[in-house]
Amino acid sequence: MTYCVGIVLDSGMVFASDSRTNAGVDYISTYSKMKVFEKAGDRAIVVMSSGNLSVTQNAINMLEQHSRRDDPQGNIWAAESLFEVARLLGTSLREVRERDAIYLQQNNIDSSASFIIGGQIKNERMRLFRIYTEGNFIEATPETPFFQIGETKYGRPIIDRVVTPATSLMEAAKCVLVSFDSTMRSNISVGLPIDLASYERDALQLKVKRRILESDAYFNMIHTRWGEGLRHVFSQLPDPDWGNEGATQAQYQGEIFK
Amino acid sequence: MTYCVGIVLDSGMVFASDSRTNAGVDYISTYSKMKVFEKAGDRAIVVMSSGNLSVTQNAINMLEQHSRRDDPQGNIWAAESLFEVARLLGTSLREVRERDAIYLQQNNIDSSASFIIGGQIKNERMRLFRIYTEGNFIEATPETPFFQIGETKYGRPIIDRVVTPATSLMEAAKCVLVSFDSTMRSNISVGLPIDLASYERDALQLKVKRRILESDAYFNMIHTRWGEGLRHVFSQLPDPDWGNEGATQAQYQGEIFK
Fold first, then answer.
1. Which domains, from first to last, does chain A contain?
2. Residue B253 and residue A215: Cβ atoms within 8 Å?
């Protein structure tokens, strides 16, 4: 499984991906799911992938190949907007699935794949896209300033509660790590290391590129203190007093169902 | 969508289900997903259902019909073990799906359904089962003392962190409500009222049967204080200090990825 998050804030962007890949529980390995295309002063683009590894790798390889050949139709280094880059990646994904999906299907292997792609190109604003398995895509807006792909649900509540466009870069990075901690606790197929990148608006180069390993002191602190904090808040909530039904009815104005 | 949780503790059991049903977002209604079979001093059995409403209702109706006819092969009031009751419900589910699934399939309607069933029958220990769409089932164990069906992921982390067989009944009920609060926050198709039942070991009748409405003071307190508590714990965690890369490397012993 996979977990990736991309957030676009007023002040910048945060990207994070896990790196566990499994083809069955007896074949687990580590692959980075984050790819950076960066040319300082011109563009900083981060791509994160989820789904069938051969499909996502091939799609990104095709994008790179087009770019090396300096194909004017498909050069990630020449594209004038991130919209264009998202379209290139969607097209590459379609080409790979057209070639491979039918063969995978013969063995009931899922060929679905998706991407989060974001960053900034000179003379354009920061942008964040989510590309679906069919190659179509959507863009993040201030109302929905983040995208997740892969195992998204365990880690979503804390992002929902905390992140708005006004959140600071480092606070959003902290939130992303709490979100990963919850996800890894409930799904062992999401695992360390985490690749984390942050981008400051208009910098046209990444601010932080960090691989978080098991030895990472900051992440371990988050893990421990968040768990302790949750248990503390929980223990401070009063238990219900429903044993005493008379008092309860008045106290909580509830209603007994039949 | 649906969310149901059943927990078996050393001291008793807790059951909770939401009651929102939707056939498309423009057809939302309220149905209880919890059914109680109770004969004080003899048995207390709670059934919660998830999936296609016509399938789950029909399966439970068939179970009741068999019981009214005093069919010795299928009487929930005469069964000597909960294992037997789980098998009866699994069989009813299979019969309904054999009859209806092919017609539903013609319109691409999902006929899948599942149940949590638990409680205690005289001369037996408390037991908790999860019945799958195919009619087969598993039983909870001390290592895995709870089952969830429906929209399970948003509300799972807090149960994972808090509940063990040694947890008290009221603390488990509190945990279940926190879990529902997280789920309803992230998935609007899970909604109030919540039906909540608790059972004290060997009592052979339910202790609490409660319908939690929007006006429920206890649930509203949980909602507010849990949200505030989470944000407080989050705000108390220090932000990462990665901007200052020199210090950070030493401080957190991380590693920059390429």
1. 3-214 (3.60.20.10), 217-258 (no CATH)
2. yes
Whole-model pTM: value is 0.86
pLDDT at B252: 37
Give the closest residue to B211 by CA, choosing from A62, A180, A253. Answer: A253
Q: Which residues of chain B have pLDDT under 70?
A: 22-30, 72-73, 243-258
By C-alpha distance, which of B255, B196, B25 is closest to A211?
A: B255
B interface mutation test: which of A209, A218, A223, A236 has the most B CBs within 10 A? A218
pLDDT higher than threshold 80 for residue A10: yes
Q: CB–CB of B76/B45 below 8 Å?
A: yes
pLDDT at A253 over 50: no
**Amino acid in position B120:** Q
Q: What is the pLDDT of residues A110-152, one digit of tens each?
A: 999 999 999 999 999 999 999 999 999 999 999 889 999 999 9
Distance CA B6, CA B46 (A): 9
Question: B247 in helix, strand or coil?
Answer: helix
Q: Give mean pLDDT, residues A105-114.
A: 94
Distance CA A257, CA B248 (A): 57
Q: How far apart are CA B228 and CA A233, in angstroms?
A: 9
Integer angstrom CA distances of residue A145 from A35, A229, B86: 21, 27, 45
How many beta-carbon contacts under 8 Å exist across A and B? 182
Q: Measure Cα distances from B159 to A185, B144, B182, B184 in Å.
A: 12, 11, 11, 15
- CA-closest candidate to residue A200, choices A85, A50, A59, A40: A40
Q: Do B158 and A186 touch (CB under 8 A)?
A: no
- CA B120-B209-B55 angle, 5° bins: 75
Our CA-based measurement puts residue A223 at a distance from the nearest CA of chain B, in whole angstroms, of 10
Question: Residue B24 has what pLDDT?
Answer: 57
Per-residue pLDDT, B256: 36
Q: Tell me if B47 sits within 8 A of B117, measured CB to CB.
A: yes
Q: What is the CA radius of gyration of chain A?
A: 21
* Peptide bond between residue A193 and the one before it cis (omega within 30 degrees of 0): yes
